[in-house]
Amino acid sequence: MVYLTRREYFNGAHKLYKADWSPEKNVEVFGKCANKHFHGHNFDVFVTVKGNPDPDTGFVINAHALSKIMKREIVERLDHKNFNLDVPEFKNIMGTSENVAIQIWKWVEPHLEGCQLHCVKLVETENIYVEYFGEEK
Amino acid sequence: MVYLTRREYFNGAHKLYKADWSPEKNVEVFGKCANKHFHGHNFDVFVTVKGNPDPDTGFVINAHALSKIMKREIVERLDHKNFNLDVPEFKNIMGTSENVAIQIWKWVEPHLEGCQLHCVKLVETENIYVEYFGEEK
Amino acid sequence: MVYLTRREYFNGAHKLYKADWSPEKNVEVFGKCANKHFHGHNFDVFVTVKGNPDPDTGFVINAHALSKIMKREIVERLDHKNFNLDVPEFKNIMGTSENVAIQIWKWVEPHLEGCQLHCVKLVETENIYVEYFGEEK
Amino acid sequence: MVYLTRREYFNGAHKLYKADWSPEKNVEVFGKCANKHFHGHNFDVFVTVKGNPDPDTGFVINAHALSKIMKREIVERLDHKNFNLDVPEFKNIMGTSENVAIQIWKWVEPHLEGCQLHCVKLVETENIYVEYFGEEK
Amino acid sequence: MVYLTRREYFNGAHKLYKADWSPEKNVEVFGKCANKHFHGHNFDVFVTVKGNPDPDTGFVINAHALSKIMKREIVERLDHKNFNLDVPEFKNIMGTSENVAIQIWKWVEPHLEGCQLHCVKLVETENIYVEYFGEEK
Amino acid sequence: MVYLTRREYFNGAHKLYKADWSPEKNVEVFGKCANKHFHGHNFDVFVTVKGNPDPDTGFVINAHALSKIMKREIVERLDHKNFNLDVPEFKNIMGTSENVAIQIWKWVEPHLEGCQLHCVKLVETENIYVEYFGEEK
Questions:
Q1: Is C41 close to F38, i.e. CB distance below 8 A?
Q2: What is the distance in angstroms between the Cα of A118 and the nearest Cα belonging to chain C?
Q3: Has residue C136 got a pLDDT over 90?
Q4: Residues contacting C3, CB < 8 A, separation 6+
Q5: Of E116, E117, E94, which is closest to residue E47 (Cα–Cα)?
Q6: pLDDT at position B136, please?
Q7: A77-131: per-residue pLDDT in tens?
Q8: Contacts of A55 (CB under 8 A, 6+ apart)
Q9: What separation in angstroms does the CA of A67 have from each of A8, A62, F25?
Q10: What residue spans define the domains of chain D?
């Protein structure tokens, strides 16, 4: 087994705000992230797959093919988008990095052939990132 | 003369959209940045000052003091803010990195003592940054 | 399970020197790190916790709360400190990155609620880092 | 158990080209990497070992000793080399990052004492890296 | 005047070898870079332009337009290429980073409108980069 | 003219403490940096030289030769050293980054042939760096 990781990135906006809480409670829990006018990040997303290198090509997966899947399934949906307003999946659940990483797994996993999805890592700032390894871990 | 640079950072949202242009023209000129629902970035801001090191302290400026100025004059105004909606200076001019850098110069310059402001550098993504050296350059 | 990682940093000084060894043996084993006058590093520390995102907040842990724990339990103890002279825990054991990482685990672990500590990663230079996953791994 | 990671780097050239395929098929599968005149990368290699810190030294392994092993076993073989033409191990198998990582494991593993090899990570570009954890994983 | 910088990157191969010198002299002057089978790098190229922000757009130059120029004039010529064998401009002059930077200036400069080329910076490794500011500086 | 920059690094310890000031005044001015037991940093040092590329070699300076000068003149003097106690030049002047950069200029400048020293940049943390361009600038 070899693990291959590919990075892509996107710039998004979101706010962390729960509509059925008071503004005060939102600020207490989410701090500055509750600003009703949104804020944003340069997100880096790392997708790791695992498999045995193909004897002919030496590839676990063609990194260029993985890039195409990531651009189509992740970047087109999230780049220069407002997660709260533009992305249906985050209409009813918080668009935190945790939930975005889980959603990215769901978007990418069905499109991989010949290897398994191992990890989705989402870097929100140089100081915070999350990793999701699927339901079983 | 020695030049000292201090970095701080903030996360903001903006859109590049000119109200007196048609939506089509906005997309033509600004591309994805024209999304009406905003997008955002992790901005790094580097302020460079120049001066002669103080013979007692060896400092051009106390970097901790510079950090305090930057946090008060820049970060408090822009962090987790929507430049278009929350920052008065960008109500009527585009909140591009170019214009934000010029504005940061205006905010910081009056508060420096014993040294001169040399450069404001604003990093929008790992691929794009701007620098402003004041009106004379 | 989602894993969330938060970074903080501190600048420390230490020397690697075993008092009951001869100076020659210390230099043989620890090389330049045995300099009796100390040397130092900019340490980055990454704390990773794991848990299920809260259905309300979408958080495994509030990253701001984790930052406060890390600043209080790690940064206040180690920042601008001499590990050999200022930190009681390293009076009798070597303040190597390995031992510092284990000690950070002990300091942080009791303060986490609603999630588990998964990893302490300590980056000593761009070329060397250590990771500790607790006693069981 | 503590995990210690050491980085070294080297600059190599390679091409991805399968001699028993047509030029067209090579371009179809390997894209620009099939250029017959080669291209190259700045590779970063991270070797992670695991073990219990020595009670005397506080080391899982002396990072300087690990560096010497890596320079002798990896850097001398691959730095400023053409993998296809200069490295016997890649005469008959593709010099992809996957296969280079597996080979690095084989070169380094026999030379470690008092700790176990855990991972070889090879970073090909800022967007692509591979990890190999040995045959059992 | 505001300065805007855009980064692109490419992976190339080259060797530093002067045909009318003996192999021994080549190794003496160029060291490992003289390997006849080539070696390569991940090059980062930063192009800096200067100008006054457009009052309508707030742009010195549209960073997306600059990216297109850089991809067409630089990346298409150098990415996954062997400078010695594939790039006519380096048939008779050494493909050092110094000379590549000067050549990139010549390729990019004629295509800029409404702003001036200020600097071409070429990063060869994390430890070496060159900058060229045009003939007058 | 082309500018070439080479990076080296070293790990040092220092304290900012003025002996003829009271402990209280030292803490007031230097904050945590006044800790009598020292603290330390991973310093990156970038030396930039300028000149015309040699028509034969394409080099402003052989980067390997520049590295040797930097290792001998800078790294051997400062690496794993305590600036206050081990480096004669900082016995009587503060070992701030400003003063260290000026001193590095004095150490390196006499050893350059065929090119001019342009800048010494010293990076103390990811948030603070200084640059010195010689006495005339």
A1: no
A2: 13
A3: no
A4: A130, A131, A132, A133, C48, C49, C50, C60, C118
A5: E117
A6: 76
A7: 999 999 999 999 999 999 999 999 999 999 999 999 999 999 999 999 999 999 9
A8: none
A9: 7, 9, 57
A10: 2-9+42-132
Q: What is the pLDDT of residue B72?
A: 98
F50 Cβ contact partners less than 8 Å away, ≥ 6 residues apart: F1, F2, F3, F4, F60, F115, F116, F118
Instruction: Tell me the residues of chain F between 31 and 90 that have a Cβ less than 8 Å away from chain C.
Output: 32-33, 35, 37-42, 79-82, 85-86
> Which residue do the tokens 């006495």 mark?
F135
**pLDDT surpassing 80 at residue D93:** yes
Main-chain dihedrals φ then ψ at residue D27, nearest 5 degrees: -65, -40
Q: What ipTM score was computed for the predicted complex, to two decimals?
A: 0.96
Lowest mean pLDDT among B133-137, C4-8, D18-22, D41-45: B133-137
DSSP bridge pairs for A41: A12
D41, D80, D98, D111: the active-site residue: D80
Q: For chain E, how many residues are written? A: 137
D119 DSSP β-pair partners: D48
Per DSSP, the three-state class of A55 is coil
How many Cβ atoms sit within 10 Å of the Cβ of residue E114?
12
Query: Shortest Cα distance from C128 to chain D (angstroms)?
Result: 5
**pLDDT exceeds cutoff 90 at C28:** yes
Structure-derived torsion over alpha carbons of residues C110, C115, C118, C123, reported in degrees to the nearest 10: -70
| pLDDT at res. D136 | 76
On the CB side of D84, how many CA atoms lie within 13 Å of its CA? 21
Give the span between the Cα atoms of B63 and F32, in whole angstroms.
Answer: 12
Name residue, tokens 């191992």.
Answer: A118
Does the CB of D20 have a partner CB in chain A at under 8 Å? no
What number of other Cβ atoms are within 10 A of residue C69's Cβ?
20
In the block, residue with structure tokens 């259905």: C55
Domain boundaries A2-9+42-132, corresponding CATH code:
3.30.479.10
DSSP F12-76: EEE----TTS-HHHHHHHHGGGG-TT-EEEEEEEEEEEEEPPPTTT--SS-HHHHHHHHIIIIIH
State the pLDDT confidence band at A136, using cuts at 50, 70 and 90. confident
